[in-house]
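Fold this complex.
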Amino acid sequence: MSDMLILGTRKGTVIFERTNVAWRPRPIAHAGIPVCYAARDPRDGTLWASLDHGHWGPKLSRSRDGGKTWQDTSSLKYPEGARYIVKYLPTPDFDPEAPVGQPEYQDATVFKIWHLAFGSAEQAGRIYAGTIPGGLFVSDDGGDSWTLNRPLWNHESRGGDLFAGEATSENRWGGTPASIDYGVFEPGIHSIVVDPRDPNRIHVAVSSAGVLETADGGQTWQGRNNGLLMDYLPNPAADWGHDPHFMTNCIGQPDHLWQQNHCGVFYSDDGARHWRKVSLADAGVHFGFPIAVDARDGRTAWVVPARADSERMAIGGGLCVARTTDGGQTWQAFRAGLPQEHAYDIILRHGLDIAGDCLCFGSTTGNVYLSEDRGETWQCLGNHFPPVYSVRFG
Amino acid sequence: MTSHLYRFFPALEDRAITVPAGSVAEVLQAVNQLAPGFTDYILDERGALRRHVYLSVDDAIVVDRKTLSDRVPEHGVVYIFQALSGG
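Structure:
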């Protein structure tokens, strides 16, 4: 059972510790600085926070003493020659029939370090980081230095090897609205899933491209979007352009992957080779951002449903958590301990986590709820936190 | 400079920092020698000024935000501002 919770919030990092009687928050760390993701490396206990400085650029902050002291690093940078093909938000006079012009290139800089994932126990020091504008970075020295994964950056779905010269294919990756705060409209990697059986097998989910998989440690990548549907495009089953909100897997059954996106909850039991839509809009399970999966049973998952897509808040003013135990064929909503009127909370993509029978989520309204019985009943850990961007058990 | 930077570089706090004249880029690199990592906060990895940061040489706003080629004369003063908003 985990005794630590780490929250990334708009105003810093909040660490809860479990005492004999309750979960208690410590004084906030990184006070005043937006922290878009924070987590603990289970291998050596290092705490990580991704700082989303509005002025000073994204930084990683690392604590090797359990959060007593933190050291910021600026070592995650795009290498010289890393470029991408610029995307722009469609304007009101956008003409889809207009001929495609010459690609416009931009030198890459890091806008946001959106997600961190840790390698296997045998890969000491291996850490992954996903960014806006869509680069996957790898460290093999515990985060002191980082290398851009070039095969993914140079993927043919993104225009090919722009280090070498002009684009050799069309850029099929879209831009995520989550990048607009940085003055751009570019994709972002927000989910990095390492297969615990084989650390060379990694899935990433990209807003707004979809899912890609490598089986050779990142040397080659294949799209894994078969079965995903985009209701908002003329061809809902197109290869690219999908917008997973968050993707995760079952630690004990890693071929069981789940994602929540604009158009439903999607489940794969074959390593993302085929996805199927398993949400039930009539039951309220359709739109949302985060998803959590049981560590042993790949058919059991939890979501925090919200009203799609224009409102993006709790359905009917009441919060619930929905659980399936049969791969999404049926869902059961749990409300005990959660507010059932005047609740407008939305839970962002990294805002829900699971550890054993415990689940916890935090909302953009600053409410944090914890369940110790697999999501059936909930207790409030506080109502006045800053908007919560991420929740992870330590 | 904006006092917010002292949080990350306490060695610079309340100091009048004197470095050789040159381009703004050269001046910032000289400060980086005193406080390693300083330029990573002011500039992106291409050496361009970060979006919400403004520099001036005396009372003239720095124009070349991409390569910081504006000149700093002898006895010129470089100011570092940040555009703050929101809550």
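The radius of gyration of chain B is 12 Å.
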